């Protein structure tokens, strides 16, 4: 396997949207979990 800077750059550009989606999903999950916990407490 050869490491090419252009392919590495492409991988980074391809991974960026995935990271954003995962981060949004994690934030949404944490928010929903927090809301669920507050609903259970009340």
UniProtKB/TrEMBL annotation:
Superkingdom: Bacteria
Name of the protein described by the UniProt record: Uncharacterized protein
């Amino acid at each position: 396997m050869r490491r090419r800077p252009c392919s590495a750059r492409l991988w980074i550009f391809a991974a960026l949207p995935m990271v954003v989606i995962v981060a949004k999903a994690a934030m949404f999950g944490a928010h929903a979990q927090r809301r669920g916990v507050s609903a259970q407490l009340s």
